[in-house]
Specification:
The structure holds two protein chains of two kinds. By secondary structure, chain A is mainly alpha-helical. Chain A is built from 27 helices and six strands. Helices cover 47% and strands 3% of the residues of chain A. A two-stranded antiparallel sheet of chain A has the order 1-2. Chain A has a two-stranded antiparallel sheet with strand order 3-4. In chain A, a hairpin with a 2-residue loop joins strand 3 and strand 4. Chain B is an alpha/beta fold. An eight-stranded mixed sheet of chain B has the order 7-6-8-1-9-10-5-11, sandwiched between helices. The longest helix of chain B has 20 residues. Classes of the chains: A mainly alpha, B alpha/beta. The interface between A and B is large, with 99 and 92 residues.
Chain lengths: 605, 416
């Protein structure tokens, strides 16, 4: 009743044309009484939303600890010991290095071509070709290690909520690994130094770290954005310029490296980042900005670029590129003749804008609660955002402790992304981390390669975006592959909860499979199909298709290059789709596992 | 948008209520879709990495060509005996010798190349140029959908289109940019792989899980998927035999075109198909009549020729369109290769194309004729070619929705 009255009050406020009451605080003192999920559902629900899936024993642990205490613990990752996961991730060199170190240690094959080309006439010697091949192979390891560590950490970390939020921000601030060879150097640093450390911190800090990250500067072209001719600049143009910005005729790059070619000697303003900053990163498309604001934002950010390797790499502000004129933006005036302060003030303005509070609150509520979160919840979360100066931890707390979060409507209301499908299956059976890129390739083959979304709007956050006919087929086939024990590190038949029912009666096996893969909760139809093995709607003779050949052909898993490092798009290498070996007909317990993993329930969280 | 594929159609709705699949097959494939199978099909083939148009469609009549490329030029047809030189088309242009399988198509009037075509954008970035070619909006990065999907969405009113999930199919692991958008698209690696991979009764049990229970988005998608799998199974892809002795290369590209032919012949309502092929970014050791580029072209030409042979008379309703994000530098570089350039070339192949002549205006290769002093200049906007194929082949009526902000001055006239 109280919840209803609050919703009505907020709706009434929204309808009455009054200014949004974002500053007002609505204390979240409601307890269990306002939650329409059962106690068991609350445990399963919290685990399904705040982690990449429950491991064996997680539900019991959360039940004993209390859902609310467990949520509070997850909101403070710094208080959770994560030594085991950290130690595992630590084996990967790429993750520990800065982008500058990576550029020094993993030669860009394109740059090597330039080097070799200087002495070659009409082609490379066999020795040089071999060198080039090695360089390419070495270079590819960057992408592989980033992905292996990314998947392995999500699988193992005890700081699950931090990792879920990291996944959210990596998508909100997406960059595309296939943008060019240089993006490969930047992505490990982007995930590990830019996004994760700020994932539950202040939004302004996160936004600033992203704005200065080579990954974003490169992806959205701000690194080459300079004052238009005719605009006052801070310094004459003949100053040292950014990496790769030299205007000389170049011939670089093999398959991988469009580096210098990308630089068009003309220079001038590039609005790409300025636009997406407002539209996708902060205010939102309906956030009340104009084309003039986009141009002003881009002008304020001119000179925010990437230093050359000899200058130490990383972010640098280059005064000679900066537009020093006055800028008007969202009702503010940025004074003339300033430098980096222009961009900093711009970020201050947009990070604290009410539209940003609402947009970020909406996206987080959509991620954690449902595809169409209630306006009342969004308003409360936005109010928290403004009250706490964009403290992401507190915004998330408002959302994941809300009655809406624990409502029956929210239970299993979200569709898992391909990443979540694979990770939740792996976690359900306590899988060992995969040391090879194969699991990352599987996720890619389900439609979600790591940092593989070309456009800056990121992967879909709602069910519609993930549900084509081909997509659901891939999910079902992944479940079958998993049940057959063909996914690296995962052996469902020996996993806790399953191994003990190997010889048990079918009903008991069904209970075990439902407990492990479906959080102990399957629809009556699903349960009935699992127990009887029959289709309750189609009788046996109607459903059996006599023309169907026995389908035991080899399971083909395309061998995707996991680094999208070819100068073009990610391409499966010809002739490298390979059979993982024939998938035998699944029987008994494995068959049940395949059904559970392929069921509609498993697609939800 | 929501209950996308089958449930709106009465035949399929009956099936979801429990009628037998054989009824489905008889109705859907036998009667309704026979119309769609006679419909027009567009097959777009993307050469990712920027194919070297000057060595694909060789301007052997332009003297500057040989000055610019002393080591990698394709020799003039007259001077060569056998396979070393260009295959002459019209006395000025010729095909790379590795494209010999396409010559019979030219002779039959099925092949219409166009030169000096591409994006008006100055970008030499693979990423940006592919993005523009697929979004159909050069120099505008704010477009979230692809032009082929906008065609599907804008012209999606025909009844037949609603029946099939296979109206638009990408033979790629993920839906490519050009097909991303609001209209449903299926991406697959091959027809044979589009199946539930388990033996025994597991597939039927899985189907039961989706057919029963609540009619929500997930159940709908699953139900649609099982119908789609059955449609393809009825086409019996395991036993597919290409017709007319068509021999597809055993390459990934060749096999993907084979899958497209299967879909067309299965009569599942295919209207737009897409495949791509990489390996064109030839900065080093590009080769001439033989070598790296020649190998890529051999596969490319033989695959397309096999597709055309296999489709036989169906080519009257099919147009194949090849594209690549930009051309390459007119001069060879110091590594026996070429770098990122500007305008390129496209092939249009089909029974209704104005084949047997090279389209487009040739800008020339003299120094003052080059774009920025180094690249082939642009004389045809790629959107003019796309607009022509969308309107004259597929029958699109709303070009403004497909190519926002673009009004073609005149269409290149590659289709009758």
């Amino acid at each position: 009743m109280r919840r209803l009255s609050i919703i009505l009050a907020v709706l009434a406020a929204a309808c009455s044309q009054a200014p949004p009451r974002l500053g007002t605080t609505v204390p979240d003192t409601r307890g269990f009484a306002d939650r329409s999920q059962t106690a068991d559902q609350q445990v399963a629900h919290a685990l399904s939303r705040l982690t990449f899936g429950a491991r064996p024993g997680d539900a019991q642990r959360v039940r004993e600890m209390g859902v609310d205490r467990w949520i509070d613990e997850q909101l403070h990752p710094e208080r959770i010991d994560d030594a085991r996961s950290d130690a595992w991730v630590d084996q990967f060199e790429v993750v520990k290095k800065t982008s500058t170190q990576l550029e020094a240690d993993y030669q860009n094959p394109g740059a090597l071509v330039n080097l070799l080309g200087a002495k070659a006439k009409g082609g490379l010697t066999p020795e040089d070709s071999a060198r080039l091949r090695d360089a390419r192979q070495n270079f590819r390891r960057i992408g592989e290690e980033v992905q292996v560590s990314h998947v392995g950490r999500a699988l193992q970390t005890e700081r699950q909520l931090q990792e879920v939020i990291t996944d959210f921000w990596l998508n909100h601030f997406t960059v595309f690994a296939g943008k060019g060879a240089r993006e490969q150097y930047y992505m490990a640093e982007y995930e590990n130094q830019v996004i994760r450390p700020h994932a539950l911190g202040k939004f302004r800090d996160l936004l600033g770290a992203v704005a200065k990250s080579p990954a974003m500067l490169f992806y959205l072209d701000n690194w080459e954005s300079a004052a238009d001719s005719g605009r006052p600049r801070l310094m004459p143009v003949n100053q040292p310029r950014a990496f790769g910005a030299q205007a000389r005729p170049v011939r670089s790059a093999v398959m991988v490296a469009p580096t210098q070619q990308q630089r068009r000697p003309r220079g001038g303003l590039n609005e790409n980042y300025g636009r997406e900053l407002l539209e996708l990163h902060t205010l939102g498309v309906d956030g009340g900005y104009t084309q003039q604001d986009v141009i002003s934002a881009a002008r304020a950010l001119t000179g925010w670029t990437i230093a050359g390797p000899r200058q130490g790499g990383g972010f640098v502000f280059t005064p000679s590129m900066h537009d020093a004129g006055e800028k008007r933006l969202l009702g503010h005036t940025l004074r003339p003749n300033r430098g980096i302060e222009d961009g900093e003030e711009l970020l201050d303005i947009v990070a604290r804008h009410p539209s940003t509070a609402r947009f970020i609150a909406f996206k987080l509520a959509r991620r954690f609660v449902s595809d169409a979160p209630s306006p009342a919840l969004v308003e409360r979360a936005a109010a928290t955002f403004l009250r706490t100066d964009g403290d992401i931890r507190e915004v998330v707390r408002t959302i994941v402790t809300s009655p809406e979060f624990f409502s029956r409507e929210a239970y299993r209301a979200k569709l898992k992304s391909p990443f979540e499908v694979v990770l939740s299956a792996l976690r359900a059976v306590n899988a060992e981390p995969d040391q090879t890129p194969r699991t990352a390739q599987l996720i890619a083959s389900l439609g979600q390669p790591y940092l593989g979304h070309q456009t800056p709007n990121g992967w879909p956050e709602t069910a519609e975006g993930w549900l084509g006919a081909g997509a659901i087929l891939n999910r079902i086939n992944f479940g079958l592959l998993m049940a057959a024990g063909r996914v690296p590190g995962a052996n469902p038949m020996s996993s806790p909860g399953i191994d003990v029912v190997r010889t048990a009666p079918r009903e008991q096996q069904v209970d075990a499979v439902v407990a492990v893969f479906l959080g102990g909760d399957a629809s009556s139809v699903t349960r009935s199909v699992l127990v009887t093995g029959k289709n309750p709607l189609l009788d046996a003779h109607a459903s059996a298709d006599p023309t169907a050949p026995p389908r035991t052909e080899p399971m083909m898993v395309p061998d995707m290059p996991i680094s999208a490092s070819s100068g073009a798009r990610p391409q499966p290498r010809p002739g490298q789709a390979r059979a993982i070996a024939a998938l035998p007909p699944l029987t008994g317990l494995a068959q049940l596992a395949g059904l559970a993993l392929g069921s509609p329930e498993f697609q939800r969280r | 948008m929501h209950r996308r594929v089958f449930v709106k159609n009465s035949a399929f709705a009956l099936v979801t209520m429990g009628l037998s699949p054989s009824f489905l097959r008889r109705t859907a494939l036998g009667a309704e879709l026979s119309g769609a199978s006679k419909g027009k099909v567009l097959i777009c083939l993307f050469q990712r990495g920027a194919a070297d148009a000057l060595n694909v469609l060789v301007p052997h009549g332009d003297r500057a060509y040989y000055q610019l490329r002393p080591d990698i030029a394709i020799a003039q047809p007259a001077r060569s005996v056998g396979a070393a030189g260009a295959i002459d088309l019209d006395g000025f242009f010729g095909l790379h010798p590795a494209l010999a399988p396409l010559k019979p198509l030219w002779d039959r009037g099925l092949l219409a190349p166009i030169h000096a075509v591409g994006s008006p954008s100055a970008t030499r970035s693979h990423f940006d140029a592919q993005d523009y070619m697929e979004s159909g909006t050069p120099d505008n990065k704010g477009t979230s959908d692809g032009w082929l999907n906008r065609y599907l969405a804008a012209e999606g009113t025909c009844e037949q289109c609603k029946v099939t999930p296979f109206r638009a199919v990408a033979m790629t692991p993920q839906t490519p940019r050009v097909l991303q958008g609001s209209a449903p698209v299926v991406a697959m690696n091959s027809v044979a792989e589009f199946t539930v991979r388990s033996g025994g009764t597991q597939a039927e049990q899985l189907e039961a899980l989706y057919r029963t229970g609540s009619a929500d988005l997930i159940h709908d998608a699953g139900t649609g998927m099982f119908e789609a799998v059955k449609m393809l199974r009825a086409a019996d892809p395991q036993r597919y035999q290409p017709e007319h002795d068509a021999a597809y290369p055993n390459s990934q590209f060749g096999q993907r075109l084979r899958s497209i032919a299967q879909l067309i012949k299965a009569g599942v309502g295919l209207e737009v198909a897409f495949a791509d092929v990489g390996g064109w970014d030839t900065h080093v050791n590009q080769g001439g009549a033989t070598g790296q580029l020649a190998q890529r072209l051999e596969d490319f030409g033989a695959s397309i020729a096999a597709l055309v042979t296999d489709l036989g008379d169906r080519m009257d309703d099919v147009v194949i369109l090849t594209m690549s994000e930009f051309g390459r530098t007119t001069r060879q570089n110091g590594n026996g290769g070429t770098d990122h350039g500007h305008a390129g070339a496209m092939f249009m192949i089909g029974g209704t194309v104005k084949g047997g002549r090279v389209h487009g205006r040739w800008p020339g290769l003299a120094p003052e004729q080059l774009y920025e002093g180094r690249d082939l200049a642009l004389t045809t906007d790629f959107r003019a070619v796309f607009a022509e194929v969308a309107s004259r082949h597929l029958g699109a009526t709303n070009l403004a929705a497909i190519f926002p902000g673009y009004t073609p001055g005149s269409l290149p006239g590659m289709l009758g």
